[in-house]
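Minutes, project check-in
Item: structure for the 272-residue chain
Input as provided by the requester:
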Amino acid sequence: MIISEINIYPVKSLKGIALQDAVVESRGLRFDRRWMLTDAEGMFFTQREVPKMATISVDVSISGLVVSAPYLEPMTIRAGSKSDTVKTQKVTVWDAICEAAIFPTEVNEWFSTVLERKCQLVEMPETTRRPVDPEYAVRPNEDVVSFADGYPFLLIGEGSLKDLNSKLDEPVPMNRFRPNLVVEGSNAFAEDGWKKIRVGETVFHLVKPCARCVVTTVDQSTGEKTGKEPLKTLSTYRNRDSKVLFGQNLIAENPGGVIRVGDKIEILEMRS
């Protein structure tokens, strides 16, 4: 079994970027979901409410972001030590409230124009700590997460998607599920039985199945909802406690290493 895809999503719910390698950090892969769009009060929103977010492309580097969208000039946004941010504000991601840096008006107007709704871009400073749910923490008081829904990493096996697509009239691509890591060579839903794995020099704990939502019904190339699939079919055989499960959330035991496409996956511990 090997890693066949590595993906990051620098701005939460915008287009992802496929990588050949990535640095594993405590919050997630480097640059993954370090930025987010919110309303003026700091409440986040995603493709659940605004599927058109899928049409905004992002390039990222140490110096910042370049964002582009159909029919609009691309925009360069400085970040980190060269940041264009002007102030900080408390922002909300689900049940979490944390400090974020706000970008100036011209940046926010670009996104507001594309999405046809008033919004602002925020960045997670290195000083901000958003803890993962302590019930699932591997390193209590240390495990943190970016602006991702709840956990630093998401893994899905190609075999699991193949099994789902065998039940659909119209197959869906892996990007509907927005994973960070994709596994080639495993059986359908084999990842459900893994408890701890090693990829390269990094040990990952598979702490919780991922509950899916209507984002899976959004075509990631057009930003349009396509109906009730694949969620409808998934709910017929992947439903537990009224949640539709697909993929596994991960936490890194020893962040700091690099993972690469083609890295072998070593199973260190299975679930009982």
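Outcome recorded: Helices lie at 105-115, 158-165, 231-237.
No further action items on this chain.
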